[in-house]
Amino acid sequence: MPTTVADELAHWLRLASIPGLGASRQRDLLAAFGLPQHVFGAGRSALAAVVGRELADALLAAPDTEAIERGLAWAQAPGNHILTLADEAYPRSLLDIADPPALLYVKGQPALLQRNGIALVGARSATAQGMANAEAFARALAEQGFAVVSGLALGIDAAAHRGALAAGPEGGGTVAVIGTGIDRIYPARNAELAREIATDGAVVSEFPLGTPPLQHNFPRRNRLIAGLAQGVLVVEAAVNSGSLITARLATESGREVYAIPGSIHSPLSRGCHRLIREGAKLVETAEDIFEELRGRLGLPAPARSAATGTAHGGKRRARSTSKSTRPTPPAEHAQQALELDAEAARVLALVGHDPVDIDTLAGQAGLTVDALYAILLPLELDGLLAKRPGGRFQRI
Questions:
Q1: pLDDT category, 264, cuts 50, 70, 90?
Q2: Residue 379: inside a domain, yes or no?
Q3: 146 shares its domain with 237
Q4: How far apart are alpha carbons 246 and 314 in whole angstroms?
Q5: Which of 63, 113, 237, 258 is in Cβ range 3.0-4.6 Å of 243 for a Cys bridge?
Q6: Spacing of C-alpha 354 from chain mean position
């Protein structure tokens, strides 16, 4: 009886379900024996020579039929795909990394995994300006045809996905690489965003269905974020953040690393500044990234886009631009500041672009703390400044 596609996928799912058999050992077996069905047809001594006796016994034990059937059923649902190393649709860029997974679960459009990608990563507890930067850069990159890759975390990741989605169906789309089973979204707060991405982009996981959000899975996820992209842009990051792990993995895989500089007083700028000192490209606009990648990838000059505030094809595209997608430009902030009453304008000028605590600001303004709060609150509501952790304020 000829082997069906479902039969072949069942063998791949069985290989992935063996306890203790990681991606590296799976590839060792595939290199030694060929396809998974050949692995399971090999003798114990031959298997033990590759992975040791204990794993050889696990390979020859009765298969976990429940896990296999669950995977096959999931793959039958509309929009669901399981890509194997043997599939033509498997993303070519992942074949360049040191540890490509044998299986990829994809919900959405697997073709996006073949596009030129740019990863945008950064802090979960991002600043308002960092979020605005992530959205603006992601939208501009997507409008030039790049798939924006990120990790569906809170903060910079979520902002990057939203920015790419705002580029619309003509854009490059967005890919969310998650550290759980693809049937579990973490954090739950991003469940609706994940559904949007699955409709217009792709959600990707290498972990079996039902895998919970285990801490050690997220660094493994980061290597796929870096591997699916031609470059990694770090928007905001602390010195010891997972974003710097992604940047290191990108460098090891021959990808470009970019970083947006920030205030020397902000802890979330220090990771970016470290990357820049270590050789990452300092970027201030998406055009900086286009210039860097254009020659390397053989790309044409970028079209000018609405996301960068310039014309596309000679005129601005008629597309809705929410405040969350397009941050208020500095010139508009300046105009708003001119329209404030004199006391509010004076306080706003004192805040500056580095975070300042309320007591210091009160001393500089010559006001009581209560009087100062009465001025700061309307400024915050108008989007002219933001309140930071520790009760500090900063201009946006």
A1: confident
A2: yes
A3: yes
A4: 38
A5: 237
A6: 27
Total structural domains in the chain? Answer: 3
Q: Same structural domain for residues 227 and 296?
A: yes
If asked whether residues 1 and 54 sit together in one domain, one would say: yes
- Please report whether residue 356 resides in a domain: yes
Judgement on whether residues 136 and 265 belong to the same structural domain of the protein: yes
Q: Can you tell me which residue has the tokens 């996820």?
A: 221
Of the candidates 129, 128, 203, the one whose C-alpha atom is nearest the C-alpha of residue 161 is 203
Do residues 58 and 20 lie in contact, with contact meaning Cβ atoms separated by under 8 Å? yes
Q: How far apart are CA 143 and CA 172, in angstroms?
A: 6
Phi, psi of 272 (to 5 degrees): -65, -40
Cα 189 to its chain centre, rounded Å, is: 16
Quote the CA–CA distance of 73 and 36 in Å, as a whole number: 20
> Rounded mean pLDDT of the chain?
86
Rounded-to-integer distance, Cα 203 and Cα 152, Å: 9
Q: Is the dihedral of CA 82, 85, 86, 90 positive or negative?
A: positive
Indicate whether 236 and 278 sit together in one domain. Answer: yes
Tens of pLDDT, residue by residue over 167-208, are 999 999 999 999 999 999 999 999 999 999 999 999 999 999
pTM given for the model: 0.78
* Largest interatomic CA distance in the chain: 88
* CA separation for the pair 226, 252 (Å, rounded): 10
Q: Domain range holding 373?
A: 330-395
| Rounded CA separation 76/242 (Å) | 34
**Whether 298 and 337 share a structural domain:** no
Identify the CATH number of the domain in which residue 156 sits. 3.40.50.450
Residue 335 has pLDDT above 80, yes or no: no
Are the C-beta atoms of 89 and 110 separated by less than 8 Å? yes
